[in-house]
Design brief:
The protein has 107 residues and is α+β, with helices and mostly antiparallel strands. The chain is built from three helices and three strands.
Amino acid sequence: MDNEPTTLLQQQIIDALKTVFDPEIPVNIYELGLIYDVQIDDDKNVKIEMTLTTPGCPVAATFPQTVSETVQGSVDVNDVEVELVWDPPWSMDRMSEAAKLQLGIFD
């Protein structure tokens, strides 16, 4: 996500996303750059666009549900829809500096 959180609810959602870790890389999905967009409507329905590190990821079928359940269980929202997107493809450039440091990747 390019923009900073604008609301308390958006920050709470991001905090919840930071508790979900990629099954193959010991970094949370937000810092890895797997979250492309978080939208919240007036009824507190949330739509999250995310990707995975690779399209053939073994958790592709179940991971969106895991993300949805984590957000819904942590934040006062009505509904959470998670959509997997593949464009643009994920790359290490999307990772936060903290994630790069954690993995020992230096620019």
